[in-house]
Design a protein that fits this description.
By secondary structure, the protein is α/β, with parallel strands linked by helices. The chain is 29% helix and 27% strand. A 4-stranded mixed β-sheet has the order 1-4-3-2. A 4-stranded mixed β-sheet has the order 5-8-7-6, with no helix packed on it. The longest helix has 16 residues.
């Protein structure tokens, strides 16, 4: 029997191959001039409110995000890691695996997230926090183009994985 997520993994690999073959920017995978970005902006969409992912190991994930400084909110089916005006909703395994919860990507299984967080302190403070929580930096510090200034601002990023294997990027502008 074919694994439900196998097609999505193949699709991601195909996208990455096409993106690399197409000559997208080396540092971030995307390059747009500020004029191009401004021309594509809609005035109605302001920011992300939240994103949602399924959990594999609820206790480990909540402990990890709490140790990074997120405010943790626990509910019977959904937990959240809140920061600023945003949050990362996390669906407990018994919820997303129940077959009755359909307001989710049907192929989403841990790990399925790739998130970039803006770090508001120094790079040294970020390195100290990541060391304190025992996170292995899998790439970085590396120059990246982030989401600020309509996707044209440059920063420096570090990448780690959370206990479920999701990719976390911390960018310092």
């Amino acid at each position: 029997m074919k694994h439900e997520g196998a097609g999505s993994q193949a699709s991601r690999r195909q996208f990455i191959r096409r993106a690399l073959a197409g000559g997208l920017g080396a540092s971030s995978g995307l390059v747009a001039s500020s004029d191009e970005a401004a021309a594509q902006t809609t005035s109605s969409i302001r920011s992300f409110d939240h994103v949602s992912i399924p959990l594999r190991d609820t206790d480990a994930m909540l402990s990890f995000y709490r140790s990074l400084g997120f405010t943790i909110i626990e509910g019977p089916t959904i937990c959240a890691a809140a920061f600023g005006d945003c949050k990362l909703n996390m669906h407990r395994p018994e919820f997303w695996q129940s077959g009755t919860f359909t307001l989710r990507a049907p192929a989403a299984e841990p790990p399925c997230g790739d998130y970039c967080f803006v770090w508001g302190e120094s790079e040294d403070a970020l390195d100290a926090l990541l060391a304190q929580v025992g996170a292995d930096i899998i790439e970085g510090p590396a120059p990246r183009v982030g989401g600020r200034a309509l996707g044209t601002a440059e920063g420096t990023s570090r990448y780690i994985r959370d206990p479920d294997g999701n990719l976390l990027e911390f960018i310092v502008y």
